[in-house]
């Protein structure tokens, strides 16, 4: 529909001094002093005024309840866009984590088995099949979803903060021409990943402890035990490698996803299968690049870990398990990450298309209401 827009017109006022003030009281000294002198001499001071007219059209032509019942899609447009995107990201993240929870549990067991076995006097790696069988034998079917609740709780604020931060940082890193370069996209993704990780990191530590350490049944139990025995700082063990690991991962993931979709012909960009395929490619590249840092982070989070810094952990893991030790659990992680990323990013794209369609539907209803009012006004005249 045709929207009434406020127009801002700039006009030159003869004699107006376009001085820019950089200090808080500079304008007061200049204008009050000069204007007081001018008033004594009988001259008039210069000023400018901006008048803004409030737009009321949206309220006047908003849809009635009956129209919303007949056009339910328009209801989505009434929800603030940021809220709708936040909810979509949270639900998609929670669903993806629940579906892939067994693979995540196996990955964690494989990543941390070396250090746990070392505490028992044995140095032994554990494979995918062995880890899968071990969980089923010792804990049953429910064991595959052990620690999933805190992960689901974590992913809701994690997704919200990450998506919001990514959009915010993209605005900050745009060039003067308004375009976002590859470096800008990478920087925005890295900052968004670090921001969301820092905010939700304690929940990630609790999830790991609950998933791999015996004797705990609830997240509250783990938290109280950590506070009592290790202090508040234990909730941020391994934060350094986490930030370093997540920054390139999110940067590469988001950047590749955006650039690949942007490079495709326009007719393919809005297809669901395109989003899924692009997400698989971006997640694969990001995972191959950043997985060793994730392994370091997990081992630094464990109780009794001998590693205090990244420089200790890297050679320690290589000495214990070889270079392949840095990629322990990569297969289940890849099987988890690829569908996880696909579900999340595809859902996000789908919701954005749904929001756009709902806005068009709402505009259509409001245009019909405007025409009805115009016809009524003509008949009255």
TrEMBL record:
Record InterPro entries: MCP, MCP_dom_sf, MCP_transmembrane
PROSITE patterns per UniProt: SOLCAR
Ubl conjugation found in the keyword field: no
Subcellular location: Membrane; Plastid, Chloroplast envelope
A Pfam family per the record: Mito_carr
GO cellular component, one term: chloroplast envelope
Sections of the chain in a coiled coil: 348-375
Keyword terms: Chloroplast, Coiled coil, Membrane, Plastid, Repeat, Transit peptide, Transmembrane, Transmembrane helix, Transport
Membrane topology designation: Multi-pass membrane protein
Solcar repeat coordinates: 80-172, 180-263, 270-354
Keyword Transmembrane helix annotated: yes
Family: Belongs to the mitochondrial carrier (TC 2.A.29) family.
PANTHER family registered for this protein in UniProt: SOLUTE CARRIER FAMILY 25 (PTHR24089)
Protein name: Envelope ADP
